[in-house]
Amino acid sequence: MATVTLITDEEASPEVRAVFDDIRTTRGSDFVNNFWRALAHDPALLKATWDRLKDVMAPGALDPLVKEIVYIAVSASNGCEYCCHSHTASARAKGMTDAMYGELLSVIGMANQTNAVVNAMQVPVDEEFKA
Amino acid sequence: MATVTLITDEEASPEVRAVFDDIRTTRGSDFVNNFWRALAHDPALLKATWDRLKDVMAPGALDPLVKEIVYIAVSASNGCEYCCHSHTASARAKGMTDAMYGELLSVIGMANQTNAVVNAMQVPVDEEFKA
Amino acid sequence: MATVTLITDEEASPEVRAVFDDIRTTRGSDFVNNFWRALAHDPALLKATWDRLKDVMAPGALDPLVKEIVYIAVSASNGCEYCCHSHTASARAKGMTDAMYGELLSVIGMANQTNAVVNAMQVPVDEEFKA
Amino acid sequence: MATVTLITDEEASPEVRAVFDDIRTTRGSDFVNNFWRALAHDPALLKATWDRLKDVMAPGALDPLVKEIVYIAVSASNGCEYCCHSHTASARAKGMTDAMYGELLSVIGMANQTNAVVNAMQVPVDEEFKA
Amino acid sequence: MATVTLITDEEASPEVRAVFDDIRTTRGSDFVNNFWRALAHDPALLKATWDRLKDVMAPGALDPLVKEIVYIAVSASNGCEYCCHSHTASARAKGMTDAMYGELLSVIGMANQTNAVVNAMQVPVDEEFKA
Amino acid sequence: MATVTLITDEEASPEVRAVFDDIRTTRGSDFVNNFWRALAHDPALLKATWDRLKDVMAPGALDPLVKEIVYIAVSASNGCEYCCHSHTASARAKGMTDAMYGELLSVIGMANQTNAVVNAMQVPVDEEFKA
């Protein structure tokens, strides 16, 4: 149903195969999801996207679970079906409980609500908020 | 610059004043920011929004700082100038460091990037991700 | 501050002047707002946009005020500063009261809230809703 | 296909059941659509969303049909599949004719068109439009 | 699955049939895609949309393939499933190669990434960029 | 006015200075625009963003001007003020004429219009468009 076919392991070129292998090693799982199989049509884009994602989502000043939660919030606001599914699955795998998910949905809903109302009224930014 | 004037303390009706007072008490600060002063044109909307926001952003299964971080991510994805400013200020007041902010920007950027690429290709959702 | 300068009456070519005149006649006002003065850099785009807008916003099965209200809702959801200002002014000129504006903001807020929550959960469409 | 399962009447806890009952009574119909069955995973979010929606969509300064029309416009601009379906069905049930729907689509299209063009050119807001 | 049924050639009124015929003649193909069959419920909207689209997408200062590429970029950013599919098919028919598509995806991803990061930080526009 | 201050050449750390130098060399200009000065608060994010942007926007299967045109289209659809200004300036520097800009605005407007109308009606994707 995509605009491209999904590249199987068999069809993968050596560069693509190297990225698939790194995904498997990094995640400790044999599963390579469809996003990477679609991107594999352009090996350079596949590699650049995976290398950056691996770096960005790694533990750092923010916890990996918090990063997945941020990803869900962005994906829901943008209406990306695939991304909502894949990052909700990742967040659950990293420990997101039902209670956390319920609160996340509440914040996502509230933020989208007040964003739209603020935009409608074009509220000027308080001087106190400026850097 | 807004589509409505900002209601001052002097202009506030008793219902509006009651909400402003609750904002001050809840936050332990005398500052009432412009969003509430704009919403004050409709006291019922002001009260409903504040009551819900207070509830949603309170400590729970997710930390209040994580909730502010989610709010920034949504506001950046929607392009809400006021909300980016106000929630970045709130997040900093709740302990967001420069390192956390830098990683947050990285995740926001990455999520918006992959959302758009996934949408362009209309990647089908993997069966493994479905509830 | 725009990416183009704003075309004054003096700078307007005959085709542009003809559109400005029709805007003035249709609206019964001498005021030609900045959107048209920016579009005037491309006379064909100016004319196509104005001709279509005049037609779309005219009285029909939907009242012109309802059409302005829809325009505000779209503009708020897209975060278009100029459009929120211009269509709120138009809606007020066509009779939008403070009470109507307050309710409109409530619906805009609610719709953006539930849109995001539905997208987050990817709720399947009920069979009952399909045409 | 959602990120959560849909809660049936049999699975509903007493708090969830109370909301489902209020939905049925308020709408005068036995049908509880999937949005509420998905939200039911978080009874507090379910109740807060329904209570607010019931209030916001009730007759007031704006007609309930106008409110549904606004909801469609927001949902189309945000690309929310579920919401476009559910609110189009609601609007039709409240009297939206084919002629009204056609004009609504025209206004939604025009608003999204001019929003994007205004944003591209970053047209400055006319002084005449400011409150 | 749409909110309206799709109008077949047999069901088409004479005005609708005239537009369908013009689509066929202009494109040199018998195929009339679902977008036009859905719009056909409102013959005036169908005709206005087709007439404008035919004009906008015709060869001019920008090549028709560049116009299709722009259409894909907008559709991906807005998350429009149908539009991503239909305009990717059109772009390929007009000569978009796999290498071009891969680079297009890279630019779309980069632009959505930096848009969100710029919005998050609310970077002020450099004087050098203003017209 | 940003959420961060803008890093001047004097305040730049050696890593930041190295990126600023590469921006100057690559572009053959002494001008380093505000986006990079804001990002400079996080040297790793600055470097990752610049390195990727330089690569993505370089000549390839798509002409650099076409890439700037795509960037404008995405930025207009997302409502990013800064990005519309900076990429319109870049596109002009790379040869975008007034006629090309006018046609670009027409395509951006049309795409956003039909995206919203398609989303409103949830038109099913034609089998002919699927890969």
Automatic annotation (TrEMBL), chains A, B, C, D, E, F:
<keyword id="KW-0560">Oxidoreductase</keyword>
<feature type="domain" description="Carboxymuconolactone decarboxylase-like">
    <location>
        <begin position="43"/>
        <end position="123"/>
    </location>
</feature>
<dbReference type="InterPro" id="IPR004675">
    <property type="entry name" value="AhpD_core"/>
</dbReference>
<dbReference type="InterPro" id="IPR029032">
    <property type="entry name" value="AhpD-like"/>
</dbReference>
<dbReference type="Pfam" id="PF02627">
    <property type="entry name" value="CMD"/>
</dbReference>
<keyword id="KW-0575">Peroxidase</keyword>
<protein>
    <submittedName>
        <fullName>Alkylhydroperoxidase</fullName>
    </submittedName>
</protein>
<dbReference type="InterPro" id="IPR003779">
    <property type="entry name" value="CMD-like"/>
</dbReference>
<dbReference type="GO" id="GO:0051920">
    <property type="term" value="F:peroxiredoxin activity"/>
</dbReference>
